[in-house]
Structures are given as C-alpha cells and as structure tokens.
C-alpha cells in the first residue's frame, strides 16, 4: 500500500471501533475480456483508472478509496450507515451508466453494497486485498487460470473464522437474483411456421405510460439466427418480395386472432396490434383478400384489435392513403402508422384517421444510449403527432435510458426488453408502474446482462 494511502487510512480509523465501508464489484469483466482479446490489459486499466477518478470525485476528502481485485473498497470518514448505503447505491448506478455509454465497456455492471464493520475486520479485509493487488497488476502468466471469470475479490473467496458476532461482522455476498434468460432460452412459441422464412410468431407486451399498465400486445414473427433474434419484417432479411410480405401479414393476422381467442377462452381479453405492410393492402384486390382474414373476427370483438400499417411509401398519394386507412377502420379500434425513426413530418397523413404513430428504436440508440439529436427528434415527432391528435409508440425499447428519454418528451406507448420480453401468447392486461419497470431492470441487470 502506498505510504500516503496508509497514512490516510490510519487517520480515518483513529479512535474508531467500527466504520462504515462500501464495496464496488465489477461484473461481466470476463465478457469484456473476451471481446477485447489482446487489448484486454489496456481496457482493464481503463476500467480501474476511470472508476477511481469517478468514485473519488463523489466522496468527501476524508474518505478512503482502496483498489482491490474485481472492484474497490471505500471507508467513509463521517457518514452513518444509512447515508453510506445511499452514497454507494448512487455511485454504483452512476458508474454503471457511465460504462454503458462506452462501447468497449458497455457490458460492465457494478454491484454496490455498504455496511458497518468492526475496525479489526476492516483491517483484515484491507490487508488481504492489498496483498493480492500487485499480483493482479502483473501480466498474465502462460498458464491460464481454470476459471473463465475474473477472480472473485478476497472477501468473497475467503471466509472469516466463526465468532459470536458472525451474523453482524462477516462480509456477506449480496443476494443474487435468478439469472436472466440468455437468447438461447427465449420462450417457445405456440404458433410455429415450418415452411416459412420466419421460425414462429410471438407477442410483445406493450406498456401504456399514461395508465401505468400493460394494455396491448404486438403480434410479430420471430426468426433466430446464430442465437440472435429478428422480429417482424426483419425476419425477411431485407427482402422486398411482395409474396413474402403478404404471406407474413396473413400468418401474423391469423396468429393474432388465435392468440386472442386463446386468451378470451381463459376468461380475459387484451388488445392486440396486428402489423400489415402497405403494399399488402395498397390495391383493392389485395386489400379484400387481407380483409377476408380480419372479417372472421366478430364485430363485438374488433375493439380489441389495432391495425398497424408498415412501410408507408414517402411518396404515397394522399388520396390513396386516406382510402386505405379509412377502409381499415371497421376492423379495429385504432389504426397505427409505423414509420422510420425521426420521421417527424406527419402532414402527409392529414385526414387518414391515424390514432397512433409508431417507430422502432434504432439499434445504435439502444447500444450507446440516446444522443441529444435523437431526443430532439423524438420531441419533434411527439409534437407533430399531438398536432394530429395522435399518440406515439416506440418498439424495440431495450434499455431504461431509452425508455426514460421517450417518457421525457411525451411518448405514451413502449414495447421491448425493458418492458417485458416476448411471450408465446398475449400477456394479460395488468397494472405496471414505472417504478416496477425500473426495479425489474436494475434487478435483472445487476448481475447479468
């Protein structure tokens, strides 16, 4: 331990029988290492250098920060237990958000915990961590360790001898939630397509932020390629084959009806959003063929179906658009228009009766977090929709940052991983508050990405 750090630690412990300490443990270091390859050593030092600077800026001058394997220890000079716990929680959350904005380190998670410990135990922990830090800083040996993960911090590998105050003084592992399912563990679909380009058809629950409830489900095709899932028209891998798009639309419409019937037979009902490509209903003959499928839904039940038009051409004649959108009104409670992200000029939909405009969150926005320009684009889009007395809806909302950015500018509806993953059948309508979504996100992502 450097002399100056030793002196600072001596000062903060002087005359104290117990202290409030915090722990920060980095999770998913093994995943970052796998992606970094030969650049791992540089990235590892970047993690610690940035974290040290980040943590020290948020502590008082008398607090002590000690680096150890897999994270940091903090000894607070004057905070009580409650204040220390709050400080650790806030630092962990802010540091994790910082990593999320760095493409190289976006997989990193930070687990924070605070507790009061006797001074004697603290000194033992510090001694163990400092004894092993030099070894951790050395270059990797030619013999690879047997474990695939970053070595656990000493306080998690070593157990203190039993004592009368064991329940109070032993450092305890933070409670770990059940692992979040990997892509390979996606729910098995009920409606499968053996002879189609897509694999199956699933439902994505939709959250209404104004009512704080799950109210709708989008019915979408799904295709898994090398462990990565594609949804909706992305399952066609960019194909503009009209026949494929029409077959997709027909299959989704039938699955939406069957899913609703299954739910209704179990005693509950929910609204289902049914996507259809503009080209599928652009001509009267094609429109009538598609409407034959929708016609099978009893009129009393059609209020549970929302029809969403995808792929509206930018140069589509207004008269044609008005005819198409108006002709869909008898088959659903709402008609949606699904547009490219950032398409804020909605004047071309004048008189079409569109109740909701939707867009898909760009993958880069989910990965890197919402940029200022994207938030501005969202704000302009919402304002434009509101001028048409319509609501807005974001699909593929994968992170809490994107959700909160959408909420901040007035987006009403959201679907995607941050709300709930896809389900085999429609999810029942139920209350769901923003705080519950946040709690679920932090719980699921504290230990597993």
> What structural class do helix, strand and pairing data support?
alpha/beta
Order of H and E elements: HEHHEEHEHHHEEEEHEHEHEEHHEHEEH
What gross morphology would you assign?
Answer: elongated
Report the span from N to C terminus: 34 Å
- The whole-number mean of residue pLDDT values reads 82
Low-confidence stretches: 134-184
Instruction: Report on the biggest sheet.
Output: 8 strands, mixed, barrel
Q: What is the beta-strand fraction?
A: 15-25%
Helix tally equals 14
Strand ordering within the main sheet:
6-7-9-10-11-12-13-14
Structural Rg: 27 Å
Walk me through this protein's architecture:
The protein has 449 residues and is an alpha/beta fold. 39% of the residues lie in helices and 21% in strands. It contains 14 helices and 15 strands. It has helices at residues 3-13, 29-36, 40-57, 81-100, 119-137, 154-157, 166-169, 242-265, 284-294, 318-328, 363-368, 372-387, 400-409, 434-445; strands spanning 18-27, 64-68, 71-76, 109-118, 191-192, 200-208, 213-225, 228-231, 271-277, 305-310, 334-339, 356-360, 391-395, 413-415, 430-431. The strands form 2 sheets. Strands 6-7-9-10-11-12-13-14 form an 8-stranded mixed β-barrel. It has a 4-stranded antiparallel sheet with strand order 2-3-1-4, sandwiched between helices. A hairpin with a 2-residue loop joins strand 2 and strand 3. The longest helix has 24 residues, at 242-265. The protein starts with a helix and ends with a helix. The relative contact order is 0.10.
């Amino acid at each position: 331990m450097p002399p100056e750090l030793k002196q600072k630690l001596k000062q903060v412990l002087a005359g104290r029988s117990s202290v409030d300490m915090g722990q920060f443990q980095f999770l998913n270091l093994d995943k970052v290492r796998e992606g970094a390859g030969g650049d791992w050593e540089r990235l590892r030092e970047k993690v610690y250098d940035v974290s040290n600077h980040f943590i020290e800026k948020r502590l008082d001058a008398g607090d002590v920060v000690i680096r150890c394997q897999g994270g940091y220890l903090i000894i607070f000079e004057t905070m009580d237990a409650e204040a220390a716990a709050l400080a650790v929680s806030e630092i962990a959350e802010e540091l994790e958000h910082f990593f999320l904005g760095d493409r190289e380190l976006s997989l990193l998670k930070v687990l924070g915990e605070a507790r009061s410990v006797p001074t004697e135990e603290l000194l033992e922990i510090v001694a163990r961590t400092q004894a092993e830090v030099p070894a951790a800083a050395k270059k990797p040996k030619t013999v690879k360790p047997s474990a695939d993960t970053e070595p656990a911090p000493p306080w998690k590998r070593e157990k203190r001898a039993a004592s009368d105050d064991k329940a109070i003084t032993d450092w305890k592992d933070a409670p770990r939630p059940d692992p979040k399912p990997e892509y390979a563990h996606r729910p098995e679909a009920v409606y499968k397509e053996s002879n189609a380009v897509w694999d199956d058809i699933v439902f994505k629950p939709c959250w209404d932020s104004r009512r704080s409830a799950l109210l709708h489900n989008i019915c979408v095709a799904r295709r898994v390629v090398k462990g990565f899932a594609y949804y909706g028209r992305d399952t066609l891998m960019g194909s503009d084959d009209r026949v494929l798009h029409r077959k997709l639309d027909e299959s989704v419409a039938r699955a939406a009806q069957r899913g609703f019937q299954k739910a209704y037979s179990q005693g509950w009902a929910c609204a289902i959003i049914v996507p259809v490509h503009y080209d599928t209903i652009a001509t009267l003959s094609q429109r009538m063929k598609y409407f034959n499928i929708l016609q099978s839904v009893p009129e009393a039940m059609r209020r549970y179906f929302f029809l969403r038009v995808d792929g509206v051409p930018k140069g589509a004649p207004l008269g044609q658009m008005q005819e198409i959108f108006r002709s869909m009104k008898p088959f659903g409670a709402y008609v949606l228009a699904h547009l490219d992200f950032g398409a804020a000029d909605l004047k071309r939909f004048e008189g079409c009766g569109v109740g909701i405009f939707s867009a898909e969150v760009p993958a880069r926005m989910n990965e890197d977090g919402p940029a200022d320009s994207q938030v501005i684009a969202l704000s302009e889009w919402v304002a434009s929709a509101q001028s048409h007395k319509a609501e807005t809806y974001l699909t593929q909302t994968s992170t809490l940052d994107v959700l909160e950015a959408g909420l901040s500018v007035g987006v009403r509806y959201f679907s995607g991983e941050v709300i709930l993953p896809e389900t085999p059948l429609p999810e029942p309508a139920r209350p769901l508050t923003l705080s519950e979504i946040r709690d679920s996100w932090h719980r699921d992502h504290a230990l597993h990405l």
